[in-house]
């Protein structure tokens, strides 16, 4: 279709309709110093084949991440995705579906969400899970609001071992709510249960922890649950690496009241940061306060199974004053991917993946600990991530490793000034022994 510019008369009629005297008036709110007052510096238009060739040349300048040995985690994990996942989850009927506004006509999508919810409950050892969160960080913010509503309290404690970006989103979520956020300093890579017990008061709605936490360490969930429950507070557990639940105790078994997390690791690609999948689950007695909505299974008048939306507590379905949240969409496609991934692996498969992650990470940890100048920062048990104190700046290590096709870990000084020399490394089942040994060899050569 050829672009035909508007005539002067047509522009005048449009300006009159919106009540402005001229085009310049549309931009008066833009500061003059940032206005571009010259033509855009663009090359002439290209023919299709020339443009495609140009785009290919630009694309070739990018790094092919599939050819890198990735040791970066920190909330997004490079796991192997079986071919069944994209073949099933990316079928057109799922790929083009949006939120189920005409729920009874979208039985396939509703059943997929229902199956996802059921698998999340089993994985987390919780009673109720939904499929209406954006990501792990926003789900954690929703959990804080939910806990304050349930307990009629306004104080929320969060460990500094919780993902720093989750904590940033938590503060944003609660900045205009009558909720106060306080932090419990981590010690030795974990949240001290006694410190939590001391800081929890009768005004505390929830204690928020993460396990495995941001440093990769496993928390003493049972002790933290007791500390919270003894003062009438709820325990919220945020999980950014759900594959760990194939091996470690699920939060529902040690007393978590609300579980949040990021589902990216469950079959979803890294995608340079999204879209991702927020997880939230809770106990049966709190079902009416969970944000978003649930899919339920029922039967019709002839006894045939059917799926329906139930307990839709978001503001699009009920009066805004009574809504538990303003979450207004869901991540159904990402949830379906997670469900297909879990169904493909099964119980034994998810356990084997978790064991591979843990074994390979501990092999890398032992190898690096044997290098001169490097030491493991924390003695606490870990899953597939661990923190290393380095003899040279971690950012410099990452720059030099990238020259050899290795994507290094996260430099922690960005979030923790007292850990300026610390490096967070992640090892998943995709990393081979040869890649780990190559990483160690380059670290040794850097000194």
Report the count of strand segments. 15
Poorly predicted ranges: none
- What profile does the largest beta sheet have? 7 strands, mixed
Q: Estimate percent helicity.
A: 25-40%
Oligomer: single chain
CATH topology of the largest domain: Aspartate Aminotransferase, domain 2
Identify the overall geometry: globular
Query: What is the end-to-end distance?
Result: 61 Å
Determine and state the CATH class of the largest domain: Alpha Beta
What is the radius of gyration computed over CA atoms, rounded to a whole number of angstroms?
A: 25 Å
What's the pLDDT, averaged over the residues?
91
Name the strands of the widest sheet in spatial order: 2-8-7-6-5-3-4
Strand content: 5-15%
Q: Would you list the SSEs in sequence order as H and E?
A: HHEHHHEHEHEHEHEEEEEHEEHEEEH
Going by helix content, strand content and strand pairing, the class is: alpha/beta
Number of helices: 12
């Amino acid at each position: 279709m050829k672009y035909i510019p508007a005539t002067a008369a047509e522009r005048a009629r449009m300006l009159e309709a919106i009540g402005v005297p001229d085009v310049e008036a549309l931009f008066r709110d833009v500061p003059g110093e940032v206005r571009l007052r010259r033509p855009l510096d663009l090359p002439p238009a290209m023919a299709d084949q020339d443009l495609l060739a140009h785009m290919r040349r630009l694309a070739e300048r990018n790094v092919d991440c599939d050819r890198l040995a990735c040791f970066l985690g920190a909330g997004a994990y490079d796991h192997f995705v079986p071919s069944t996942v994209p073949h099933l989850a990316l079928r057109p009927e799922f790929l083009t579906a949006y939120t189920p506004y005409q729920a009874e006509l979208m039985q396939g999508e509703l059943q997929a969400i229902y199956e996802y919810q059921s698998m999340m409950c089993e994985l987390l050892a919780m009673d109720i899970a939904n499929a209406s969160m954006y990501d792990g960080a926003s789900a954690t913010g929703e959990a804080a609001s939910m806990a304050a509503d349930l307990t009629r309290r306004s104080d929320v404690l969060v460990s500094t071992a919780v993902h720093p970006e989750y904590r940033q989103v938590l503060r944003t979520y609660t900045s205009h709510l009558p909720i106060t956020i306080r932090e419990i300093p981590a010690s030795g890579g974990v949240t001290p249960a006694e410190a939590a017990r001391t800081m929890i008061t009768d005004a505390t709605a929830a204690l928020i922890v993460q396990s495995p936490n941001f440093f990769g360490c496993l928390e003493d969930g049972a002790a933290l649950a007791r500390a919270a429950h003894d003062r009438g507070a709820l325990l919220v557990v945020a999980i950014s690496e759900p594959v760990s639940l194939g091996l470690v105790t699920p939060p529902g078994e040690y007393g978590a009241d609300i579980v949040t997390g990021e589902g990216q690791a469950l079959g979803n690609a890294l995608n340079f940061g999204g879209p991702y999948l927020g997880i939230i689950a809770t106990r049966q007695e709190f079902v009416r306060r969970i944000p978003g909505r649930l899919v339920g299974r029922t039967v019709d008048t002839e006894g045939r199974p059917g799926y329906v939306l139930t307990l839709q507590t978001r503001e699009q379905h009920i009066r805004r004053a009574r809504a538990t949240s303003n979450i207004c969409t869901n991540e159904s496609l990402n949830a379906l991917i997670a469900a297909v991934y879990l169904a493909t692996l099964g119980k034994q498969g998810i356990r084997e993946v978790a064991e591979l992650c843990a074994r390979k990470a501990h092999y890398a940890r032992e190898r690096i600990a044997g290098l001169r100048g490097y030491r493991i920062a924390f003695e606490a048990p870990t899953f597939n991530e661990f923190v290393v104190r380095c003899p040279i700046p971690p950012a410099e290590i990452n720059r030099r490793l990238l020259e050899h096709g290795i994507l290094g870990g996260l430099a922690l000084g960005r979030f923790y000034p007292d850990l300026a020399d610390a490096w967070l490394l992640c090892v998943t089942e995709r990393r081979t022994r040869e890649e780990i040994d190559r990483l160690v060899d380059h670290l040794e050569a850097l000194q």
